[in-house]
Give the backbone structure.
Amino acid sequence: MTNTNEQLIIPLGPVMCDIEGLTLSDAERNRLQHPSVGAVILFSRNYRDAQQVADLIRDIKSLRSPALLVAVDQEGGRVQRFKNGFTTLPPAADFGELWRQDKHTAPMRAFESAYTMASELLAVGVDFSFAPVFDVNSEQNEVIGDRCFHPDPVAATELLGAYIDGMHAAGMVAIAKHFPGHGGVAGDSHQCLPTDERSLEQLKQRDLLPYQRLVDEIQGVMTAHVLFAECADEIPTYSSFWLQNVLRGELQFDGVIFSDDLSMQGAIEANDGGEGNIVASAQRAIYAGCDMVLVCNQPQLVDELLAGLEFKPNQSLSARLNALSAAR
């Protein structure tokens, strides 16, 4: 697709990808104009200061109409991509610790942190952060660790509700992750395929409780690359049981479903024995119910996916995705 100064009218597609540096290359401009692309996720390597990232985002959004969505992981603690010039945000577990001391103050602090996070991102043009983390952590899980608000699901739900209220007050949508929960396994799905042996009933009493109580407050959900062997034969990312029966059906969620990064080892191992075919992986995720699939840090895989994905641009998906835009 040739580069042009004229803004292209293209519906938003189901692929979220990333870029290499502080500005767009010509190759990236062409890639982002592909009809299957609908969003860009930014990382620390894409950030120098607020003015630079605002210019970058403006450039990204000028490529087509409706504008591509722009997202980032800005949870706080060890997961904060933009730092210089941005408020240093506490990890979610700090609010859980405060909850143990003062159940009245903790939700207010969670609200304030979320409001700050969302306001600062919106000011530079980011549409949403992949936050908050709904995972209810267990003792054996160090991967989620202090990204979890509280190991008790009721306390976690109270703090999550306050945090979401802060995001909404600033004008940002909330994206819950990682459905149905990454807190019960020791393995890191970036590096392996973790298996959780608990039953669906056990998950409903713990990991799914925040979703049950806050489903009407969240606008997006990101899937977990975890195999819940007692519930389904496929990870939630590839599972119509989890995405259609449980999330859409039982929980009545009507927002956007994102896959976690399909280049993570958990997704690769779950895709036909680890063959790593990115097109097959994305197609499975979309067929299962994902509205948008992420492929990060491997531009060659993005190009392979865009060349092979069976997708016809449509206004229905585009409108669903565009509902997450800060300009909605």
Summary: The mean pLDDT is 94.
